[in-house]
Amino acid sequence: MSTEFWEARPALRHVLTVARARRVGPWAVLGVVLARAAATVPPSVALPKTVGSRMSLNLFIALVGPSGGGKGAATATAMECFHFSGPHVQIIPNGSGEGVSRTFRPIGTKPDDPNPVSAAIFDCPEVDTLFAIASRQGSTVSAELRKMYSGEQLGFANAGKDTRSIVEAGSYRACQIVGVQPLRSGPLITASDGGLPQRFAWLPTSDPEAPDEPPPDPGVWKIRTPAWNRTQPGHLRLVGQEQELAIPDAASKAIVAHRQAVLREDPNVDPLDGHALLTRLKIAAALMALDGRTIVTAADWSLAGYVMDVSTWTRERCQRALIEQSRSANTARALAAADREEIVSDRRLQRCKDGILRALSRAPDGRPVPHNQLRRSLKSDVRDYFDAAANDLSNEGRITARRTPKGVVYQGPPVDHTSTPSDLHKHGVDHRSTVDHQPPRRRQRTRGKNRATQQTGDRTA
């Protein structure tokens, strides 16, 4: 079907050829070209009142690819290789929400004057930048974007004349291009509660079928902008001072059927899919403008459906990348936590062993110590490791465990009185000098101011 899509029309074939000649993604080039085509349609031309009020042709495009994936190159190719007759539509970097309205009505514009600028394409190479602006305290970028998509009133009725900027609904044409890295698409994906992801056509910057040898560069494709004053049947329908496009029955029926299901609270229907259907109709209108026509045909609607299939696949790829990133982060955190727990556990086990050896070394005459008494002698945070520690020490031959009628008792290794102090330390015995076989003599107390030299069983000090 991909080949059938690109071969369906000469303009689409040119998109594919020029993209491959310049080694950029054809879908990304198409997205920018469609935004430019939609921007050539006067703001007075809109989609009919299929549901609710008239709807603007303002089109949002997300160019999806990794850093260095060719978003900028695709945009440059679309700008250089397609020429639309008529006034040039400027591409403007995104700024604050107030900056959107100021684009169409700069400072100094009188309230009754028409918009000095009636059409603009806003470009944000990285979605991070767009949402960093939106996250500023008091920022209105997200709200202005949603209104801009629908062609609603923009701006703010501030008290000061210099800061007041109101752009009336339906008086401007605005398209938005955003560069999106899959692993950084979270802010846009998670804005689904307001239907923002469905307002974008998500198109990849890659070309998995790119040939080894690029085709010759086909040059510039020229599009003749049609006359937008045909209001006879089958072309444009005049409604007051505004015009409505004729759209195919298939589009009207799909939109109405979805709206009916939403009104009836069908649990199998996502209300936000209505934005996706509207985006499809806007793409169909852009394909119409790319051909220099004023009627949206059934073929436009069908081709737009294929573009939306690519969009859905690309958006879901971003969602999968975010899920995998989250899973990897969770795994890393879990492994780190497990490592910490293992280190803490090993440390406590060793402390428990050291505590057991110390307690047994202090037992009078190396007498056995009952299980409960030995366990209680340990600090509370290592007692749970007692059984494992005692078992390890027993297997190592450093202590002995013996069952008695009153329970298990433990003993340290027999003390070798001929051992050196360093040997004794290995068995948990704390001696500063050699071991004396004789118990120490009682110290003789003296009365009076002067005391005699104390007898300690060693040489007189």
The biggest sheet amounts to:
5 strands, parallel
Low-pLDDT parts are: 417-461
Which class of secondary structure composition applies to the elements? alpha/beta
Shape: elongated
Task: Give me the side-by-side strand order of the main sheet.
Answer: 4-5-8-2-9
Radius of gyration: 40 Å
Helix content: 40-55%
Number of strands: 15
Tally of discrete structural domains: 2
Distance between the termini: 104 Å
Average pLDDT metric: 82
The arrangement of helices and strands along the chain is: HHHEEHEEHEHHEEEHEEEEHHHEHHEEH
Q: Number of helix segments?
A: 14
Q: Tell me the fraction of residues in β-strands, as a range.
A: 5-15%
